[in-house]
# Entry
Amino acid sequence: MKFLQRGLYALTLTIFFSITLNAEYLYKDEVLLNLEFKNEINTLGAELYEKTGIALRIVMIKKLPEGMSIVAYEKETMKDFSEPTILLSFAEIDMKVDILANDPSLYKYFNRKQVLSPVSSPVQAFIVSLLNFNGFDGFLEGLSNYGGTILPIISLKNKDGEVLGKYSAGMYNGYSDIAEQIAKAKNVELVHAAGNANKDTLFFIKILFYGFVLYAIFMYIKRKLYRRRQEKEDE
# Structure
């Protein structure tokens, strides 16, 4: 009888810890180790799962295993989950970000290409496509590739002590963006979504980008005028 009780107790503990582990929507974090970030992700993830049945998880690692791509790493990690799962992954040293779903039908609930775009606005997409022009088809494709909510933040130039801040902002923005798209597709509302705060961050990034572009144009015109003046003086 005692043996059965011990077995039942052990089984209960196993189930409990399994449920607790799978409830962690910040599934792995070797980069930030920030309790506030963890709580925000887990709160939003729990709400999304409760209302849609889709588990959206984050994995943040320092470096990918030797010889392994980020997709291969995600596929290996996916073996830990049985429910419909979308995995947002980030490898810091490799500077790789990716999104993988364990069921192809999950991709219809969010725009993977948009979330992972390196540019955040149509104007920025136009300028980048123009600077990297390699044919009309490529130019048109570049024009439609914008709206990124992760890479435009993560790729910002570092300032002292701000590298972890941009990682947390970028990953949370991307996570919230995916969650909100899924919620909209499922016709539910998320109380803990980032909403306008997310948009404000991206607006700030756009201001920085356009400021840089305008400064570059100004310097180009100034250099041209200087050269013309020099040529006239030489004559």
Summary: The beta strands are 26-29, 55-61, 85-91, 96-101. The chain has one domain: 2-234.
